[in-house]
Structures
1.
Amino acid sequence: MKRESTKKEMAAIRYMIHHRLKTYTEVGTLDAHPDEDTVSAFLEGQLDEAGSSQMVSHLITCGSCRHTTAQLTRLDSQINTENDSPLKDEGLGRVRLLLEGLASRVMPSSVEDVVFAYQNPSELMTEVNESTSDEPAQTQSSPDTSGDVNETKPD
Amino acid sequence: MTDYRARLIDHSCASQYLHNLTVGTAELDAIYVRCAEAYPEFDLSREEFKEAVIGAVYKYLVGFGMEGEIPTAQEIRRFISELQGIDLYLTLACSRGDEQAWWHFDRQYRSFIERLAHQLVGRGLDANEVIDSVYVELYGTKTVDGVRQSKFRTYTGRGTLRGWLRTVISHAAVDLYRGRHDEIPLEDWSNSGDGMPARQGWRTEAHGSETSMLEKVARERYRSVTIAALDQSLATLDAHETLLLLYYHVEGLKLREIARIVEAPSSSIRRWFQRRSKRQRTSPTRVHESTVMRWLDNVYRKVSDRFRSELKDKHGLNPAEIDICLDIATEDFGQGVGLNLEKAESKSFSKGEAGSCQVEGAS
């Protein structure tokens, strides 16, 4: 009898939680949204304890990011990756054309495009280069490889 | 989430960090050699590779997560050994516009990109547009100070390249969709899920015109304490437990889909729940649907216990009155929000879920 009533109570609790969460008003978040790299690392269980906790806290307050992670998880189960064997060798022709097409669409820099990179201490980087390399430190190896490039965030 | 871009390494810790980094990156050479052997035709210097790895260390071990702590040499070494070195090497070469690297990338991932794009489109979007947008973003057609902004540069190797691509492709599809539907909120861009949480209040009017005024007053009182107690109970949950509930009840993820999120043994969420469940410690290999259901049941129990004690201690209700609260709440919820919730329920609860969370007795 008691078991039956506990079962009924748990069902009521589940029911209430379900409907209450559905009416939950997001408080919104002022935090920065995680980038693609962080989202995928989270979904693959690659964030450490502290990083994961921050991500979890963010997902509770940010419905948009939570929804994205949920959709990505769904996609994962919908896509059968077993069929993703490498395509047959088409030579470099296709890629050459592709790159030419992409290169022709490159837009020149403009003032509006400038986005400040996150703090990426170039001095530290230089020091690390000096201390971990036998070769002379390079401040910039090529125009495409500036250390600041990878962390710009347009939003 | 802490904005890692704004954080500074404390100057006094900088030298310690540098030391740990130097020790930690010692094995980086071996990884670089392995990558260079796998792709001998790429022209990617050791320095460039190292710079990217150090950027990843900074982002994940210093930038956020460690709360100002400086990572030890051992942590750095472990972090580097866990990186997807080959994938990172490939993307770095691609970001430079290396033709050979693009050939490898295109050959390995084009099929995946195409299939994912086709899966995502369906509302006035053409899969080819998504694919084109992805390639444009990966290559980078914008420049800043003469530097082409290749999306590949944001990949750190922390997760797999495939997982990262999946996120990039999804974002590209969302951006395209938003571009086309500026004034319509994007709720669901695949073909499943419940979209963003509804912003509805609880039903306020009493139902049943025959209900007496006294009953109405009593009912209203029970209803308001029920809401307060439930909210208070939910507020005491840990963030991991709340997220589990939100994924299941609001996002409509199935148990097996939640299990997928925590399937990696390295998953911190999984470890968090396992630490709290004696039963889990003996099965470290896989997380099954039934495991997630057990985690959910534990959360329900926690809410239930807290709910009862709130009603009893804070609002002075006796067991019979608490039962009335439960009855009223399920009635109100069932009638108050109508068909939308019925739909949501059928999505969340009725598709062959193991240990189904079917709400019994709901009216």
Note: Chain B has three domains: 4-83, 99-180, 213-349.
2.
Amino acid sequence: MKSKEIKISLNGSEASIVSSAELVAVLEILDSNDDRKVLNQIGNQLNYLIKNGKDLHELCVMLSDENRIKLFGLIKDNICNIIGNASNLANLLALLADDRSEKALLKIINTKGLRSLIKTVDDAAIILEWVYDSADDMILDMAGADFIMDKCSSGYDVSLILQSLNPGSQKKFIKKAGENNIVKLIHNTRDLAYILRSIPTVVSTDFIKRITPSELKRIISNRNELTKYKNILEVKEYKLLTAKL
Amino acid sequence: MPSEKTTTGKRQVKQKTDLRRFSGSKYKITDAHLHVLNFRQEMQDPAVLLRAMNRTGVEKAVIFGLPVVKIWAEFDREAPDYYLSSDSRCYYYSLTDVMVHEFVSIMPEKDRSRFFPLFCGFNPVDKFAIRDVERIYNMFPGFWKGIGEILLRHDDLTALTYGDTPRINNKALYPIFEFAADKDLPVLVHHNVSSVANPHYPVYLFELEDVLRDFPNTKFVFAHCGISRRVNVPFYYKMIERLLNQYEHLYIDISWIILDEVICPGVTPDKHWVNLLEKFSNRCCLGSDLVTRFERLGTELSRYDPLLDSLSKKAVTDICTKTAEIIYGK
């Protein structure tokens, strides 16, 4: 095995590592106050050690929030290549939990990086699933509502995005994406039902009110169709819909 | 056995930095308990293990796969990588032994003699298991140095594995124990002495004793002394001492959580255990119980230093290398 050895030195002792897994093993035996010293010693060579999203995740498990932010900074030029895909990014965001480190990571990834990781609507949904509150908005702002809408081909797809957002962000997303654009993607009763169920009644009733009767008739071909989905609709929603048909 | 994701002991937020631990124990050790395949039956590059062994001064290792494989269930979004990663079940997986053979075969020839390979890929509750044992033994003549780690009573893993509850006194295993005696193969067994809800009483000890009584010519190695997560009966050292006194063909391995939970729960090792290990050093060996993740070899083995520091030179030599050589080195 020919691998580049990277030396770490602390309190008069030395260790040579060749992989991220070895760095994790070293971190296990450190006073956590020394983690930063090790990160500083390795510096940009972390780009050589950390090969993929799994490596990065395992390192983050070992580090404090402050040191995670430091780590992201050290690998910033290569971070999207390392993370590799939306699922790995979602796993990282789920681990971070702390708002500051989540935002630091997203800032380093930036719009271009985030868009490169989001290839499908499922990718966008799984990333949004693991952030909360203002980080939801941050991702929506970075990726852009138009970009996310381009990944959606049905109302069901839109529902996957909406169900991963908090109510405040849902309203913002609906506004930015444009209600008309969303309605155009609603092809049938199922699409509509899933959109309504992905948002709370306080948001859904407003949404229903803005659908024109003609659009609603296009979506719901007959009342029997609506009855099929009655069990996943709120009473208030069902009444509003039947009144409009 | 330790999770692949976490250390055996939790990371101490405030612990003294000792980078030397990455290079392993200050004692020369034969790692007598090392899984070279994980619960996905994935194999790391043997070069990673050799690098770790060279760094940590581990001259030899007793290696084996895992008799079960974890299912990636339809409900699992992500592939599980440990038996506790999800609620999906496990099933017996014979290919594990062929992969252990492969693991040794692809390493440089000069290093192959550093390993004592064991086989374990059979269903311990299937009376056909002896057929599988004979088959794998004969498939690679002269290769195997023992049988194990057979996973028998193992709390959550038992519950997650398809089939009858595996236990050491299941009659399906009896012809295997006879075979082991006939071929002079030691048998490494994981058999919890108790259940999770019975920390006051070793409810499954009698099952082990049934077998120890009925197979006096079979060499048994009692992995982790029968301890498991949440399984720790009182007077453990007395129980182990009685077993070692009573059954001369019984050996123990100190591995996994027994050090942290029983032998050395605080800063200093329990004096009863020190006395016990001193007395029976020729019946005890040490293991990392790593499940792949060979990079962590130094971290795992250096945990034993406080215990080894409190033992005589002879006991250290026995426990660290000699006993393993006697058990598996034939």
Note: Chain B touches chain A through 25 residues (CB under 8 Å).
3.
Amino acid sequence: MGLTLSQRRRLVPWMFAIPGLLWLILFFAIPLANQAQVSLLSGDPEAGYTLTWAFDTYTHAIADYKEQFLRSFLYAGAATAIDLVIAFPLAYFMAYKAGRWRNLMLLLVVLPFFMSYVLRTVAWQLILADNGWVVERLRDVGLVSEGGRVLATGPAVVAGIAYNFLPFMVLPLYVALERIDRRFVEAATDLYASHATAFRKVTLPLAIPGIFAGSLLVFIPACGDFINAALLGTSRQYMIGNVVQSKFLNVLDYPTAAALSFILMTVILIGIVIYSRLLGTRNLTEAAT
Amino acid sequence: MSASDRARTWALGIWSAAALLFLFIPVFLIALFSFNDNRGRFNFTWQGFTLEHWKHPFADPDLTKALENSLLIAAITTVVAVLLGTLLAVALTRYRFRGQGAAGFFVFLPMATPEVVLGASLLAMFLVMGIDTGFWTIAIAHVMFTVSYVVVTVRARLEGMDPYIEEAAQDLGAGVWTAFWKVTLPMIAPGVVAAGVLAAAISIDDYVVTSFNAGQTQTFPLYIFGSTRQGVPPEVNVLGTMLLLAVLVLMGLNLLAQKALARRDRGRAEEPPAIPAAGPSAVTG
């Protein structure tokens, strides 16, 4: 239709890309831009909101919800660290030692995903219940005081988050470890490196993309999570996700909810950049895929 | 293998078994409590075995409706997200075009955004545009945040492919769509299936984004969360367990199908070639 062959060839990738990109522009990019505008409105639910470029919503949001922000990053960071400790040996075992059990183990790691997330968190209520087996044993060994509880505390929320996102840590770690050429490790031990040194100087550095991807996949959803805090904690354990949700759905304070969302996103993006520098990962998207 | 090596392997194995057990404890408990003969609203203490809940899993019409909605939304999400995501992945890996890097980063962004932000932003836009939230806004939201996962999964499969294979098809006279349909798609089919499973799993399980865009519509996770205060009925445990079993059966069938396919391929490879192979191997053999 009046187009030369080379022009048509240039259009081909766009034909493939445009439907998906359009969906993301309409339902991801435009809502985010709209949200930026909403964060600068002022007013109240009854009278309606008008655009006043109220940047002080941001300073107020930070001042009012500093505690929930810090708690979110603390809980998410703690859960990420716990998951790294639990997942690394498991991923290592699956990659090098599991042999014919490997596929079964992979299946077992993914399978709990198919039991509802909310339902699994409710099950943790049962596990950590005040008169339950776990809490009784913790009382026996003195980790929990007589009459003390686990449910409705920070550790319960962290445990719930760590549990729910563990598979997100295991899978990228496994992929990264599995990809490592074991001959590098053999070369190191042949050259008289101890197992510990070979691990520290060869395996660990090569596993860094997996550590990076796994940490992001746990930390990002954990930061915004509010199910664990709602079901396993009380308002004293509420995270920023709980605040955003209640501002949006109950209080109808849209500007503050929007400002809180942007602050959360900004902090996370800055955190990702710093973390990637620390670990020396060059390409963010490369590590994530 | 030295003694210390063996000890290390054992330690790793025990750690791994414990980690897997940790993952499964809540799953076992949920399944177990679907057989609990509970009295009162809460299903938190074991009061004896019963099959009653398994006999009437659909007794509660609200719960049944919620599960129906979840399954329907997951089906719609899977079809649309796989379609959009697969095409997008093909564009991003099989072609070179201006703005490709930026497009790739843009597709990655929703995965780096916390779900509360995705859900809240979308709701704000629906409110501004005066769109009532409900079934379709949930489906729209689910497609939006599963597309990126589809792209990542399909891309991983595409990256291992011969870069010139579509060009070869087109040089032999196939149009762009024929090349995609007859050459690219069959090769990436396992990746597309995996992406579909992932999209369905994410959609059916989502609470956060859904809670913002559901309006009066109930989904399975919303129903469970809503019922936590009055006590989650054991029928929820039954339906949750049934879903898990259904997935297991599907996985098993898939495995059998793959084995059958592999056997067929091997059978073909072992068939004697139509033209006698000449050359060094024929001479030495």
Note: Chain A has one domain: 64-288.
